[in-house]
Design goal:
single chain; 4 helices; 5 strands; Rossmann fold; 19% strand
Length: 129
């Protein structure tokens, strides 16, 4: 089992330091070792392949953990984020979004459904769809 942290910034004027610090703080509090940081500088407007998402997914195996500082690092649209979370659950990959306080076990259980449904509704409201 490994833990991968995914960090993404949109422009060269930004940096990943805040994301990295949030993830390291979370890892320390939960006694988790981050095995790998994947950092990307690319707009969320780009395809999942350009954002490094497809390469990230290839590295993850059942039982692994994916940690992000916030859900918006995964994609720009609600649909992209929900697809990603569905993929992670279907492939038994644990998932943590620190800002939203989401921790999914990688299993399709009632707890996961209870956590994902309100989150999806909240994201839908934010996006105006």
């Amino acid at each position: 089992m490994k833990t991968i942290a995914y960090l993404r910034i949109s422009t060269a004027s930004q940096d990943c330091d805040n994301q990295r610090l949030a993830i390291l703080d979370y890892a320390h509090r939960h006694k988790i070792n981050i095995d790998e940081f994947i950092s990307m500088q690319v707009s969320s407007n780009k395809t999942p392949k350009r954002r490094g998402i497809l390469e990230l997914l290839k590295r993850l195996e059942p039982g692994d953990i994916l940690v992000v500082s916030e859900l918006s690092r995964l994609g720009r649209s609600v649909g992209q984020i929900i697809q990603m979370i569905d993929y992670l659950i279907a492939n038994q990959i644990r998932f943590v979004a620190i800002k939203e306080n989401i921790e999914l076990s990688g299993k399709q259980d009632i707890q996961t459904k209870v956590m994902v449904t309100p989150c999806s509704a909240f994201l839908l409201r934010l996006s105006g769809t």
